[in-house]
Amino acid sequence: MGRGRFITLEGSEGAGKSTNIGVAERCLSAMGIDVVVTREPGGTPLAEEIRSVLLSAREEAVDPLTETLLMFAARAQHLAKVVKPGLAAGRWVLCERFTDATHAYQGGGRGLESGQIDALAGLVHPGFEPDLTLYLDLPVEQALARISGRALDRFERERLEFFERVRARYLELARANPRIRVIDAGRSPAEVAAEIEARLQDFRNAS
Q1: pLDDT value for 95
Q2: Which helix (H) or strand (E) element contains residue 84?
């Protein structure tokens, strides 16, 4: 049995990750692929506890390095217990966010140096990255309008300028890395779903 494939879905709040990871799961399942669907931070009981700490609003300001270390702590547990065992069993792992999100949020958004993030990535998952990343891109004002009617977590309460920096870093990552495919998430749900399905079919045919 060969190794499975690791596919990640990235995007800021409001871009449609939760909806479209379901689209991707259904598409891969229709191809006869055994799929594991998971998310970051989270994916295991311990990592979900860390997620709760990260997302909960609090009076104490969270230092960017502290935030990043917590992200990688959750990631290490997630990789050990879900992602790598799934891939080793020949399953395809479909994950909402991975280290690209850390570069975008803690790097672009918080201003943490890329070298620090790379150093932690080298410790937690040396030589390991997604086989394919689908980045759902959406103008920040449109993205924030989509989430305006719901209870907001600690990240979602950030200012527009923060999300502009996050989006800029995501697009910078996409320009530098051919595994990242940019999808215009401002179109209709059907159009976005159709492109995701086409991207996954192309990836399957090339694998």
Answers
A1: 98
A2: helix 84-88
Q: How many CB atoms lie within 10 A of CB 46?
A: 15
N- to C-terminal Cα distance for the chain? 15
Is the peptide bond prior to 130 cis by the omega test (within 30 degrees of 0)? no
According to DSSP H, which parts of the chain are helical? 17-30, 45-55, 64-78, 84-88, 99-102, 114-124, 140-146, 160-176, 189-206
The answer, as to whether pTM is greater than 0.85, is yes
Provide the CB-side half-sphere exposure for 158 (13 A, CA). 22
Tens-digit pLDDT profile for residues 142-179? 888 887 777 777 887 778 899 999 999 999 999 999 99
CB 76 within 8 A of CB 120: no
> Other C-beta atoms within 10 Å of 134: how many?
27
Is residue 199 a contact partner of residue 134, using CB atoms and an 8 Å limit?
A: yes
d(CA 67, CA 4): 30
Using the predicted structure, report yes or no on whether residue 57 has a pLDDT greater than 80: yes
